[in-house]
């Protein structure tokens, strides 16, 4: 059977730490994932409005076979500065890709942003956006525990008609192999079944980890849901995620893991992958556990688990969020 | 509100006809979609084992902006011959891309295959597989009505632990714009929620079109389902689909439609998009109805509808199937 990991966080994957940093005056934040050594990575982009850094380097035909960090950031395209802050921290602790002795090591940090410029707060930051500093701070603060909901890249997030947030979950196979997911949920679409307080992700819920509500009575999902973002807010989205495993997958296998994990978006949000979402999944491996032959069967099982775990993480991100300004939380709206 | 079209088939999209042809001795078949004039098309491939013809020509940067036909075929890579049969029919009726006066017109026919070489029947066809002839026959037989279930490309299909088949559905928006879907369901994954007779696609069902079953009692989708194909059958899959609309979408917009429609796979099958599935969605437009500005919002609505309609078509394909040889149908297994 599948069970949750000890923390039910992506940090249940051995070798990974996560840090959040927020600016509450601006109402934005950054979340950083750091591995204890360079990790293999791939990306799958399915949204129509992505904002990314170092995506090209993640293509399996490109050179660098291990990255030093990942970030998820608010701030729309301004948030891409977060990568520089993460690099500054990594340089300070001596990490990075070694080109040749005597030359500086180059920390390779990939990341993606979401749109939260409508989160309220003071966006009048002048010449220099806060994201470089937030990225550095988040990297300095990484650990095994981190907050969900209105934290890190989830602080300014909104998911359909509900306050969005940072979510995470983990799954452990009987042999001990772990799959974790991390996501900042800021979708145009709804995380709930129409006319219901049940998350779309309910069939995947473990131990009531996002409130345990189930669909009651008839549900008909026909036409766009009423609790998605309206026309005015249609450009204010993007859900960005990381799935991680300790299974020793190649970069090509991680690409398949990312593709299958993206189905977790489809099972947890509706609509999703729209022209207005920059939806993206990173897949990373710490490479600690060999996988069994035939490898494609192992990838199938891990990919299915990654989709399930990511769907749970999405629901947990919305469930953990607190109301902020005009954006009311799931728990406030559906309090019993 | 969304309603089904008159036939609840992809042929509710004005300008499209569909034909099936089968060889019951070999237990395989071909399904062909023909437009009344060249149609814009795009493709989104998400499976790990695709088999396709003319995929490169569907890239929006390639020249030909309208295709003359699409096919879905059994036969694994042998089935790609079906395209030649469809071309033979189109040439006979004077259709095709005109390069220059005096030169032959070139019918542009794209298509994809699924693996049904394990369907039973006599596969000892010698030098020449049956698919060219079946493609031609299916093209000659196109009409507004066609059979679902064990028909056309669905004849030899198996969906997880159930007989698979050919499915179709349609949706009509209040303004009359129509979205249709056609699919041959041959997935490694299951179309049903674990431990249940409810299709994963149940929230999207209209008017009991696939039996009306709903999940009763607890459902926990953790780990791989027991009613998926086992290890021995793991290489015997692929779900291939067409979504169509009369909305006048560009080829780039159709690419987004195909991407969003692929979420219908995720909502109707689990696992899906595995290393062993050649999963693919074509999106086509007959171009008869202008769409409103802002166009990305119209694409969002049509894309969401395409995903819903395709999820319904998948469930209808399995629901319509009859038991064949060792492959038992949903209706036989869950007869009440």
From TrEMBL, chains A, B:
This is P1 family peptidase. Pfam families: Peptidase_S58 (PF03576). Belongs to the peptidase S58 family. The lineage of its organism: Bacteria, Pseudomonadati, Pseudomonadota, Alphaproteobacteria, Micropepsales. Gene3D superfamilies: L-amino peptidase D-ALA esterase/amidase. CDD domains: nylC_like. It comes from the Bacteria.
